[in-house]
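User: These chains co-purify. Model them together.
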Amino acid sequence: MKNSKITKENIKHLSNLANLKLTDKDLDKFPKQLSEILDYFKSLDQLDTKEIEPIAQTTGLENLTRGDKPEKSLDSDQVLSNAKNKHKSFFVTKAVLEK
Amino acid sequence: MNINELTIIKAREGLEKKEFSSMELTKAFLKEIKEKDSKLNAFITVCEKEALLEAQKGDKLIKEGVKKPLLGIPIVFKDNFLTKGIRTTAASKVLDDYIPVYNATVVKRLKEAGAIILGKANMDAWAHGSSGETSDFGVTKNPYDNSRVPGGSSSGPAVAVSSGMALAATGTDTGGSVRLPGSFCNVVGLKPTYGRVSRYGIIAMASSLDSIGHLTKTVADSALFLSITAGQDRFDATTSPNPVGDYQNNLQKGIKGLKIGIPKEYFQEGLDKDVKNKVQEAINEFEKMGVKIEEVSLPHTKYALAVYYIIQPAEVSSNLARYDGIRYGSGREMFADEAKRRIMLGTFTLSSGYWEAYYLKAMKVRALIKKDFDKVFEKVDALFTPVSPTLPFKIGEKTADPLKMYLSDIYTVTANLAGIPGISVPAGFVNNLPLGLQILGPHFSEDLLFRLAYHYEQKTEFYKKKAV
Amino acid sequence: MKLKTYIGLEIHIELETNSKMFCRCSADYFGSKPNTHVCPVCLGLPGALPVPNKKAIELTIMVGQALNCQVNSFSKFDRKNYFYPDLPKGYQISQYDIPFCENGEFMDIGITRAHLEEDTAKLTHTNLEDKEVSLIDFNRSGVPLLEIVTEPDIKTSKQAKEFLKKLTQTIRYLGVSDCDMEKGSMRLEVNISLGGDKLPDYKVELKNLNSFRFVEKSIEYETKRHLEIFKDGKKPIQETRGWDEKKQRSFSQRTKEEAQDYRYFPEPDIPPIRLDKKEIEKIKNSIPELPEQKKDRFMEYYGLSEYNALLLTENIKKADFFEQVADLGSKEKIEAKKIANILINRKVNISKISPKEFIKDISNENKKPQFTGDGLDKIAKIVLQNNQEVVEEIKKGKETAIEFLVGQVMKETKGQVSPNQAREILREKIKSS
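Assistant: Joint model of the three components:
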């Protein structure tokens, strides 16, 4: 495992990826806290897992799909009922640049 | 009617025999809530109006002779279960004013069985916690000792049942969040096999680990509850087509001759002496009942917590991405510390340059942990372990150090990583503080877990000792 | 140094299924009132879970096979994590390392992969109460999207356009999508770079190209632009650019400095897909006759010229119409070749006439007394003489102008000649003049 020291820079980068605005307090305490937790993960390096297949699910299920018959959607008043910003039947957010 | 003595089964009997009405029952619980909850803080929302309305409807149906397994029974939902028209917050300020437009499948099934929604229970926000201290709506207290934690994250549900404010409560168990509060509050906490109960309409924490369980006073109640919630759901592609067991009718079947494994890795350094002794007492009781005990090994146990705290925050970081305040809720600045911490941790272990060393590695070790269980269940029918390394600890004792808090999960995360079921059944008291015995079994062995727990419970009757 | 052009395409195609990719909302959203085709799943509500659409998977595999891809018998979905208001869950369910189809080839261009994912919502930029805002409509969110990625084997703008024309024709033939760039059921991006014999270590991504013409023009513009930069001894910056049709140039759309880190991981809410050989064969066998095959068959069976066969097989509706008419015609001893000519020359609107009606018209015409050869010849000559300017226009390429002359001939012959005859003889005379 890599060097598990997390810096303030790392935290800033991660907060961008995670769309989180961190407070100064966060920026002060997160590097240490996260580094300690990552340190704890080092024990996994003791295991040789080269030949091991990773698992993402424990059910062993496969092919759980559905047919193509459409069903009723939500009523439009339900759809917008929890939005703080709406206009006619649209959700509204501050303008974004082209993707 | 002494509602403290009631279980679901006794209450159903009483309702059918017309000893009391659902209205009386519901009013009595609402009274308990009014009297006790200002101190215990187990509820975020109490649905007084809706509950009384449903009780009225229930009474009418009972009069007409309608038979439904939970008809007229007031229950509580952990506040990460979406209840249509009833505020659902996940105990976070982000969803402070969120009113769902649909019901979770489990909510639907329980309502169809006649259950009445008494209220939405407090929890660690987003189910991130093992103590019940991390709610944006205040700390929940242990009914046996108000200066101590009730366990989390299903803190409110466990306390509601334990303190006589409800007959049953739903919960979610991602790393022990039903079993641990069950143990700390002297109630039965069931974590079903992953995929046994639908996750649709329940605010996701870690998608491959979340198991939908419940807390009840007795094992028989737990079996009844599971027979309603279990079963494949067309809205959840991870639910199993395996037929639902006949949980209630198999409880009384004998347990003599069953082989129980005691995994040595769960009884090593870090386990409180008092807890160890109590669990040993429980094992002795089982031996007296004719169960065969043998020592087994789950060699990869010591890596489980690391694997869990890599995989779970990774999935959390992705599952919480939808909370951007645009379609519902408030903005992401409302996330409290623990949520932010887990999102950051998860984002890190998935990020480019690190995902192989952390996330991929964890997925591989997860396979090894699961294999440990597969192997051991070829030799024994079930396993007995402690639920937690300590007794219910003092409020504030572990909150300064996140890692210290994470270590509470050491004996419970393994079941979630492997997807197997587990139950916590009351196993006695140390200095008046409750603790539970954890029984683990292979996939879809809930009926076996119920059986073992039932016989032990009937012999020891620890559930009868109420909190003051 | 002679620089080679490396062009690859990334094409997104909305599949014409009845319901969305991961939920049961109707996928037929175009033109509907905003946010009326949504449910907890495609709206990204708390607690919602995806359940994959089997038909969408089958269509994806069918397209992959039509593109000669190898089908992965074991496949899965993955989460692609990023934030944008048109992405309700904050991640898109897509495919990362094990797509349904890969390593194919079409028109000598390598097909890297064809995979299945979900579409995003639609954003509209506007000004509300003096604030710049984006309005979001989630009707499109969750519609099945097929992503086709080509190898950078395309060398010219012309080749790119030809490839796209043939690809969309094939996909329409399969009945999988209408590939309408205006409606948005097809979107594409171009990756372009210049270099030597090895694949260059930079690439420019061209986005928001709304037509094949824009694709062609932007490629030509970029090629020149990169060449100029190389001539100056520099290297083009790796970036995203758009096409400005008004200014006839590309422009930089640099959004973020850092490359996106999508943090892919296997989708935990959806079990993997495992297909056996039989199922894969079944899908392959369900592929209808494709344009190339149909054209060849038309040439052989109906004796058509390649040119006519190409025109008639342009789209499946036209081809089917022709075959139905040819079938009816054979009973009336009307030659398929003649039917083909009429269909093509008269530019018949096949949506307004049935094959039965059409064949009836033709057989009626045949029964009409033919105007004698000499008489028709004389009239044709006169009409041409009197309308020299029109003849010039026709010679310059304005084909449609002939209809005026046809009308003149019809007038002179008092309708006793069929427009077909009139046109034929006029054409002959114009050609030989």
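The two ends of chain C are 50 Å apart (CA to CA).
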